[in-house]
Structures are given as structure tokens and as C-alpha cells.
Q: What sequence folds into this?
């Protein structure tokens, strides 16, 4: 047998899911909005991580002046950067520690929404039939629930803890992503390369997770980023309305305290403007990032 | 020669959404993509399935590969009914029967490199990874994609249509199948690369001893590739004969019209007007009797009453027409 010069093929390890993840990581570098959003997130994440160093005291501790009187409604200054509340708590400390609960609520809700929505969307879209009908009717039911009242009722039944607020938000937000992902799967499963995978003997689950799922992953990220904002707003709303977890510090709880003690009429802007701004910043950052991933997903949206 | 693929009275109906009236009356309207199709494909044969859009030829190809199930009727591959295949039996069938797609731009996963796309069948068939690179290289040599390293790490969008169709063919051949279905393999390609792909398909068929089915609307292409041709009209086979017979002595009026429509590479030759008129009827409500009768220049009263069966009129030549049966 004649010797043939076999062309050397380098070992190929590029896994397409990794390729998608790489693009997801690289995206903010090309999009100024997404970059801004990411910077905001990183700053808040650092604050949350080093909250104990930035504000060492317990934010719920009631402070007294040197003369032994309650340090209530102290104006912002060198001792208390943002002043104190009417109960003598350090507003700066509350703001810093509130970052933790905001990010914890936002990220955990985002992860749950992305995972549940993606899996439900994939399964419903790919298998169709009865599975699809059942999952989509459940989604319809979840979508028809009024948002805030449902969260309030659920936390009323299960207890006003942060994790129950996350649960309520996740229960209400997964149908949005599941529906959009399902519709995308419906078009992808008709593509010739999916049929090609079937003809070459790929299993159903392999087709679903190797050939279809990587194409909808950017969409999952869009919905995760949106869920971050929604969860933080919801937690703040519930806390502001007084149904939140009274043992943990959050921005919504700060707004509720300021509101009920009539901080506005006393002109204590340093009490409610900073937490309000923080909520706006984190939510807007989430939308900026989701906008960036929408463009990754739909290249047609890319501007000039 | 023993038949590799056998179809018996294969019917495929696609249910359509029912109107309220149909729902109340308990009717089940359906598109009759295939309406009783029977034929054998001998081992090593190359047959063509010809017909216009919507005649059911693509559905027929998908049925032979078990990509969809017949409503009634049976399809057997190498003596085994496809309907009962599952698990290991189905995987065994998938290793032996492959498909070449019409649109090479859509047939490859845009996120897979060319190497991964061609190695995918090996992975699915459970072949040891150590063998993959050799077998992919062999498949590439077979489709004359020389200079392997130029292609393997590319993505589909970086290749031309002709190159992509060679990659699609390499993927179909990498498991060394016995049976190949090609659904309009060159209709999406530039005319300049068609001849190359067709010659390649003929070559791999001969060297690998493949049994092949070419689905096409183009009689000129079929003549180059296939010894036998089935002409389909509205879900039925109207004529089945050696390709030379079909082209030289078409017997069914529809085949005659198809042959007359083949362009002649001579601008001075006067074009014969087509003997048929109108369009293909709605496959939900085909005409009674012979489904071709409302377009046929020779239609008789009998044609509206009885559907002509497919009968042998000469050695290896079957026609479904009352003119031939009279």
C-alpha cells in the first residue's frame, strides 16, 4: 500500500457553547451602553462585596450623641456622610448594606428566570403537542396574575423574607422568556441543519441542547438582565409598601422609612434621594446590558 | 437484484386546521401529499423522482429516511419495516441511509466548524473518537475538497455554495452509507458549479456502490444521473420507466408535457407550446378519478369516473393512464 501524506489535523476542542459564552463576555466591549451598564454593575458589586469595610457598623444600630441623646435627623456631615434617620440610624451605612440585598435579589431572580424560562421554552418549542400546550397554559396563567398584588399576597402567606420575594418574582417572570424562546425554537427546529442532525442519528436531547440551545442562549441573557431590574424594583416596591423583610436593610425599606417619617417635609433629601438613585442606576444598567445582548442575538439591530 | 427499499401503498396526509363548519360536520380535511405510492428500489440502482412543486416528491424522500411517518402503507429498508424501528435498530438504519439537502447554506449548523459538522455523524454513531480525523479526511478526499486544512476550521458562512454542498456530501458519506437521498441537490447552486457537483455525485455513487434517489424537477439533470425515473403528479406516480424511455417515448400526457418543457440549447429551434394548461389543483380537493384530467388534453368521461391504476405496459415501463390501458 502506498504511503500517503496524511494532512495533520490539530485537535479540535472548540465547543460551540463556549464560543457563545465567549461572545457573551466580549459583547460589552463593542457596545457603549452595555459597557456603561457593566461598569455600574461592577461598582455596585464591589460595594456589596466590601460593605463591611465601607461601613463597618451594623446599619440597624441606633446611634446616640456624646451627650447621650438620640442622634436623630442629624444633617449630613463628616461624622455621618448622609446624616441619620429619625430613629438615629446611619443612612450611609443603610445605603451600603442595602446594595447587598438589592444585588442578591436581582441576581438570584435573574438566574432562576433564565434557567426556568430557557428550559421550558426549549422543551415546549421542540417537543410541541401536549407538552407544549400544558406548559404554555401554565405560562398564560402566570402572565394573567397582577404583578405586585401577587407578590404581596405570596409574601403574606410564606413570610416576608427576601427569598420569598425572589420566588414570587421568578414565578411571574419566567413565562415571558419561555414564550419568546419557544417561538424561536419553533423556527430553529425546522432548519435543514436540525433535520441533518436527525438523519445522522443525533438523539432528541442532543439536537435540543447541542444544535438548538446555543442559538437561543443570548435571548436567555436578555431576559436575565431584564429580570434583575424587575426583581430589584419589586423588592423595593414591596418594602416601600411595608410588606418587606423588616429585619434586613434594603433601598426600598429606606424609602419606606423616609416616607412614613415625613422626611420630605423636613427636607432630608439625603435620606431618600440616594437609595432612589441607586435603584434607578441598577435597573437602567440591567436594561443597557440586555439591549446589548439583543443586538448580539439579532444582528439586524446593529446600528450603522 | 433484491430490492433495498420497498414502498407499498404509502399514503401521507397532512391534517390542516379545521374550520368551524368542518369541525361541526366532523370532517378531517387534509393535504394529500402522497396517495398510494408503491415501488421498489433495487440495490445499487439510481432512481429519479420527478415532478413539479407540491407533487409530494420531497415528502416521499423524507418518508424513505424515516424523517416522517406514513399515514398508512409500509416502507421497508433491506427487508425491515421502518415503522417498527427504534433504539439500536433506528441507529443502525441512520448509519446506512443519508440525505443531501437542497440548500447547502442552511444544511450546516452555522455554529459548527466544518470539521465538527462532518464528524457529527461519527459521534452520533458511537464511533471511537480516535478514528474521527482519519474518516473525516477520507470523506473530504472523496468529495475532492483537497487542501483539507483550509476548510476544517472554517465556519459555513466562510465557504461558497459549491464548497458547502461538497461538505454536505462529505457529511452524508462519512459513515459509508448504502442508501442516499438527494433532494434537489443542485437547484440552489450557481449553474457554473452544478456540473461539478453532479459529476461528483455520480462518481461517489459508482465507487461506493450506493443506492441513490434523486429528487428533482429537472429532467435534463435526471437523464445524466439515473437509469430509472418515476414521474409524480399530485401525490401519485403517473409513470415509471427507464429514463431513456421517459425522455424518448413518454406515454403519460403529463410526462409528455414535462419532456416538452425541457429547454433545448438551440435558440433557433421553435418552441413547441405546452400541451397542458392551468395549475396543479389543490391537494386538499383533488379531482375525482384521474387527478390530471382537468389539465389533460385527452381527457375522456372515463377519466372522471375511475382513477387509472399504475400498470405495466412494456418491460419495466408502468403508466397510470386510461389511454394506455384501453
A:
Amino acid at each position: 500500500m502506498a504511503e500517503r501524506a496524511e494532512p495533520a489535523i490539530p485537535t479540535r476542542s472548540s465547543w460551540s457553547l463556549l464560543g457563545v459564552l465567549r461572545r457573551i463576555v466580549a459583547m460589552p466591549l463593542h457596545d457603549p451602553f452595555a459597557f456603561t451598564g457593566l461598569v455600574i454593575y461592577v461598582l455596585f458589586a464591589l460595594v456589596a462585596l466590601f460593605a463591611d469595610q465601607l461601613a463597618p457598623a451594623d446599619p440597624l444600630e441606633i446611634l446616640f450623641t456624646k451627650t447621650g441623646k438620640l442622634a436623630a435627623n442629624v444633617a449630613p456631615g463628616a461624622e455621618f456622610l448622609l446624616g441619620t434617620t429619625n430613629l438615629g440610624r446611619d443612612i450611609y451605612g443603610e445605603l451600603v448594606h442595602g446594595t447587598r440585598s438589592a444585588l442578591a435579589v436581582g441576581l438570584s431572580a435573574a438566574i432562576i428566570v433564565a434557567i426556568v424560562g430557557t428550559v421550558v421554552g426549549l422543551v415546549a418549542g421542540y417537543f410541541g403537542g401536549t407538552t407544549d400546550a400544558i406548559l404554555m397554559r401554565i405560562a398564560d396563567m402566570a402572565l394573567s396574575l397582577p404583578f405586585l398584588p401577587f407578590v404581596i399576597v405570596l409574601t403574606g402567606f410564606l413570610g416576608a423574607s427576601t427569598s420569598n420575594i425572589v420566588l414570587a418574582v421568578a414565578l411571574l417572570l419566567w413565562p415571558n422568556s419561555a414564550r419568546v424562546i419557544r417561538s424561536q425554537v419553533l423556527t430553529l427546529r425546522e432548519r435543514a441543519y436540525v433535520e441533518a442532525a436527525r438523519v445522522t442519528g443525533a438523539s432528541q436531547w442532543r439536537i435540543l441542547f447541542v444544535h438548538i440551545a446555543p442559538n437561543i442562549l443570548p435571548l436567555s441573557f436578555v431576559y436575565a438582565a431584564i429580570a434583575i431590574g424587575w426583581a430589584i424594583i419589586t423588592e423595593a416596591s414591596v418594602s416601600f409598601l411595608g410588606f418587606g423583610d423588616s429585619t434586613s436593610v434594603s433601598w426600598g425599606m429606606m424609602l419606606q422609612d423616609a416616607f412614613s417619617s415625613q422626611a420630605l417635609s423636613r427636607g432630608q433629601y439625603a435620606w431618600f434621594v440616594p437609595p432612589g438613585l441607586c435603584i434607578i442606576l441598577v435597573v437602567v444598567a440591567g436594561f443597557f446590558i440586555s439591549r446589548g445582548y439583543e443586538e448580539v442575538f439579532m444582528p439586524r439591530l446593529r446600528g450603522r | 437484484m433484491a430490492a433495498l427499499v420497498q414502498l407499498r401503498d404509502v399514503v401521507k396526509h397532512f391534517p390542516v386546521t379545521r374550520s368551524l363548519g368542518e369541525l361541526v360536520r366532523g370532517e378531517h380535511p387534509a393535504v394529500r401529499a402522497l396517495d398510494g405510492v408503491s415501488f421498489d428500489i433495487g440495490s445499487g440502482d439510481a432512481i429519479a423522482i420527478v415532478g413539479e412543486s407540491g407533487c409530494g416528491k420531497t415528502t416521499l424522500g423524507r418518508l424513505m429516511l424515516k424523517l416522517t411517518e406514513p399515514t398508512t402503507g409500509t416502507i421497508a429498508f433491506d427487508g425491515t419495516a421502518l415503522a417498527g424501528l427504534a433504539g439500536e435498530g433506528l441507529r443502525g438504519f441512520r448509519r446506512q441511509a443519508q440525505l443531501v439537502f437542497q440548500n447547502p447554506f442552511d444544511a450546516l449548523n452555522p455554529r459548527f466548524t466544518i470539521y465538527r459538522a462532518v464528524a457529527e455523524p461519527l459521534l452520533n454513531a458511537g464511533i471511537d473518537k480516535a478514528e474521527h480525523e482519519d474518516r473525516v479526511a477520507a470523506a473530504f478526499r472523496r468529495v475532492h475538497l483537497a487542501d483539507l486544512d483550509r476548510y476544517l476550521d472554517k465556519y459555513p458562512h466562510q465557504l461558497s455554495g459549491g464548497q458547502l454542498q461538497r461538505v454536505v456530501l462529505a457529511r452524508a458519506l462519512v459513515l459509508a452509507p448504502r442508501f442516499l437521498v438527494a433532494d434537489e441537490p443542485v437547484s440552489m447552486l450557481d449553474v457554473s458549479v452544478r456540473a461539478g457537483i453532479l459529476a461528483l455525485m455520480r462518481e461517489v455513487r459508482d465507487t461506493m456502490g450506493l443506492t441513490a434517489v434523486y429528487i428533482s424537477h429537472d429532467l435534463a439533470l435526471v437523464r445524466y444521473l439515473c437509469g430509472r425515473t418515476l414521474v409524480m403528479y399530485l401525490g401519485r406516480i403517473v409513470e415509471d420507466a427507464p429514463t431513456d424511455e421517459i425522455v424518448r417515448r413518454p406515454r403519460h400526457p403529463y410526462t409528455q408535457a414535462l419532456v416538452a418543457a425541457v429547454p433545448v440549447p438551440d435558440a433557433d429551434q421553435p418552441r413547441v407550446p405546452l400541451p397542458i394548461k392551468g395549475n396543479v389543483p389543490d391537494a386538499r380537493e383533488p379531482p375525482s378519478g384521474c387527478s390530471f384530467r382537468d389539465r389533460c388534453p385527452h381527457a375522456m368521461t372515463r377519466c372522471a369516473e375511475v382513477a387509472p391504476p399504475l400498470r405495466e405496459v412494456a418491460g419495466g415501463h408502468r403508466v397510470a393512464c386510461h389511454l394506455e390501458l384501453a
